[in-house]
Amino acid sequence: MSDKHLSSQFDADLNLISSKVLEMGGLVESQIITAMQALNDFDGEAAARVIAAEERLNTMEVEIDEECSNIIARRQPAARDLRLVLAISKTITNLERAGDEAEKIAKRTKRLMEDGASRTVNIAEIKVSGEMAVSILRRALDAFARLDTVAAAQIVRDDKAIDEEFRAFVRKLVSYMMEDPRTISVGLDYLFIAKAIERIGDHAKNIAEFIIYIVKGTDVRHKSRDALEREALS
């Protein structure tokens, strides 16, 4: 992922933590897919698997963060190498939080099942946004592996589509709950799930922004999409 160094061990250290980030990302992606399966099928066993795997994600975050600290202490990296290590530390935080959101989806699904919730609410937008979230996270991890700023800029643009699906679902939920107050409890659970999916998209977008920071050396957080794209393509 980075330029060759005089110390082959330094290269090995950087490649190792980068590989572990991708491994953690793969686990998070699997968590989200399983959580959405649990929701779509009302599958309690799938929901339980998501919840049980959360501890592994927490452990991976701590282990990778510790390795980042060790590299900084031992190698004293500078310039792009330092940006890479710092971005990895922030990336795994976002991955862990995306895993938390998958766990929230699983827990809310179990609650819906325990409450005997029927399909009283059309959740088409949730399904679509869930598929988008999985796709955008997968592409963010691929862009991270290749340090592809063009792909990163596209990911930031595409996150807007998840936000639009969320807003459309909120509008529909409000209509459901106004027409039939009996749907309020179920509606709030689905709203919580939709918000969790939106947050997964946000975490993927954050990872894309870190890619631009590694390569370009510019912190593009909180910049407009147009300004971010100009930086990524410059």
UniProtKB/TrEMBL annotation:
**Subcellular localization:** Cytoplasm
Q: Pfam families, per this entry? A: PhoU
The record places domain PhoU at 21-109, 130-210
Q: According to the lineage, what is the superkingdom?
A: Bacteria
Q: Which UniProt keywords apply?
A: Cytoplasm, Phosphate transport, Transport
Q: InterPro entries in the record, alphabetically?
A: PhoU (IPR028366), PhoU-like_sf (IPR038078), PhoU_dom (IPR026022)
Q: What is its main location?
A: cytoplasm
Reply yes or no: does the keyword Thylakoid apply. no
- NCBIfam families, from UniProt? phoU_full
Give the family per the record: Belongs to the PhoU family.
Instruction: State the function annotated in the UniProt record.
Output: Plays a role in the regulation of phosphate uptake.
Q: How does it assemble?
A: Homodimer.
Name used for this protein in its record: Phosphate-specific transport system accessory protein PhoU
Gene assigned in the entry: phoU
